[in-house]
Amino acid sequence: MNLDTLLQEFKKCSLLQHNGQLSIQGVQGNKWTFYYQLGQIVWATGGVHPRRRWLRNMDLICPEIDIDKIELRDENILIEYWDYLLLENLYHTGQIQQKQFNDFVTHTIGEILFDLAQQVNVADFSCEINQDTILKALMISTSTNMFIKAMQDAWHNWLQAGLRKISPNLSPVIRQPEKLRQQVSKSFYKNFERLINGQHTLLDLAAKMRQSVLAVTHSLRLFIDKGIVELIEVPDLPSSIIKMQQSFNYKQLNQENSPLIACVDDSFLACEILESIIVSNGMRFLGIQDPLQALPILIQHQPNLIFLDLIMPVSSGYEICEQLRRCSYFANTPIVILTGSEGVFDRFRAKVFGADDFINKPVYNDNVMQIVYQYLQTKSSEIINIPELILSD
């Protein structure tokens, strides 16, 4: 497969208004995945150094964020788009702005496209278009055609600079320090030695120096050609650089018999809002953001009422609702769908899959607690200690 053939695959996804993934696999094991929404690329991941890339772009675009305080839920580290989940969480919690989110997405996609453009000319690749995962993109800032054009321009400039055989994923290291000292000033050498140490890739250096990777690589070309500096392969950063947290939030109150209300929603913000409402009304809360983990966690805790987001990646609210109804534990458990849609068809379909009711997003204290109180009061199969409910006028 050459670059022109690969570009045809991107164009095909755009023309078909594809929702899902375009996965590109190299014979050496490298994999790049592009996520599409309505024919536009909304995220990309994979390649040689996904963790280096994520941390590098955080430092470049969101320098105010304390990396040490960012946590990824333990099961999400195995999800291919873990990097998107982290970015989405930062946006939902108000830690980064919309422009930063857009810039991060745009920079990531552009970097991966360039990486792919270089790799596809030296190795065989296969492509697969599927709908295994459909990301709910927060925003689409740049068209696929613009991404492709930017990649072609960047690759053309790289070739014009005579850098065809140099990958920006390589790391420069000084091999002839004495020869270097003879050619540069003492202050230059000191800075050079600090940065050119075999620990940072060319992309890492460009981000640290706030320069383009083309400019940084071109400036090193003379030293590389003379053998003073050598470019070496380096591994990705270890997964341990990103802290893990529990896969769900469980708020245990003193009231042993107080109702347990669960929410399955991939949105961190939606779970946080619902949690504050439920807990402030004297009930316990169980928040689950990974739909794949929902069923075993729900079986373990057996909540008295379940809120389900209608549209989630991998598994929809319909599918989870159907799975729950097949399980004897939840044959009579009230299930309420959270939806941003007023569509009659969506509501009818959810009823068919076993949902009891609906609440429109965004949720508020009154409409949430009214429906919680309504369904917990009607459960006659068990005695539940329901705190006194006071609805504002």
From TrEMBL:
Protein name as it appears in the record: Protein PatA
Keyword Phosphoprotein: yes
Residue stretches making up the Response regulatory domain: 260-376
Taxonomy, superkingdom: Bacteria
GO BP terms, alphabetized: heterocyst development; phosphorelay signal transduction system
Location of the protein in the cell: Cell septum
GO cellular component, one term: cell septum
PANTHER family listed in its UniProt record: CHEY SUBFAMILY, STRESS RESPONSE REGULATOR PROTEIN 1
InterPro entries (alphabetical): Bact_response_regulator, CheY-like_superfamily, Sig_transdc_resp-reg_PatA, Sig_transdc_resp-reg_receiver
Chief place of localization: other
Protein purpose: Controls heterocyst pattern formation.
Keywords tagged on the record: Heterocyst, Phosphoprotein, Two-component regulatory system
Residue positions where 4-aspartylphosphate is found in the record: 309
Induction comment from the UniProt entry of this chain: By nitrogen starvation.
